[in-house]
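Subgroup meeting minutes
Present: P.N., E.W., G.H.
Scribe: E.W.

1. P.N. recapped why we're keeping a running log of single-chain structure predictions: easier to compare across weeks, and new members can see raw inputs and outputs side by side.
2. G.H. added today's entry (176 aa).
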Amino acid sequence: IAGSIESVRDEADVTTMIENAHRKLFEAMYSGQGRPGMGSTIVGVVFFDYEALVFNVGDSRAYELRRGQLLQLSRDDTLGVDRGRRGGHALTQSLGGTATPQPVSPHIRRFRLDDHVGVLLCSDGLTDMVQGNRIGTLLAEHATNPAEHLATAANDAGGKDNITVVVIGPKATAAA
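Output recorded in log:
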């Protein structure tokens, strides 16, 4: 992903980039560089002049911070509706994660940046432990190191999974 994201210009480029990463993950599994069944979710964003492309596979999420609201841009690939402290969801799609290659279809969404304030990218280690309204409150309260405050909140709530948090945008904490 890191080697090809700079060349992304449209949705087709995102799909190609994700498919290549998926293929390389299986190549690593079969060559002995990885372990059978290893996999990952992914979420990312590519910014252009006045718009951005957000993409994901799995249950890592992207949110847009706009006009005081936290809006989910990504789509979860999960079975079960009981996400959160009780668990209860299983991935329906990931990069790798199976014994044999399965097709992968990234969710891609283009959005305008006119009222854009910021973007939050995170793993389910955050969203399973901290509810959306609390995430928005923490972003509004902490102008300095918002990602660190969100990760701390997830750990304080039990931190049952890996926690990844990225907050992008100079005014990201002013809204939510």
